[in-house]
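tool_call: predict_structure(chain=1)
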Amino acid sequence: MKYFFLSEGWIVNRIWSSEGLWSSTAWRREPEIERMNLCLVEPAEKLWLYRVEDAVLMVEVKPGNDLAAAKENIGQVVLKRLMSAEQALELLCTSSATCQLTRQDAQ
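tool_result:
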């Protein structure tokens, strides 16, 4: 499994695998992407930890509908770097932000 952090309110847009842009027709399924119940709380935002399957190489994210109306986010798309579990834990341990656990049904 691989991991990445995503700001609250942002959504996953496109997914890349080793064969290029993810094709649900070719794979016969959607990619496995799961928001974990752990986030980093920084002064201005929450960064949620997501888990993706190993076949995913890159994730493109964009502001969700609530944030899309904000002028500073117009046309903004970001490619997220995926990290291993060890890298995610290292970031959680060295971050100056506060870690927060939430219940799955509270999301």
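agent: The radius of gyration is 14 Å. Proceeding to next step.
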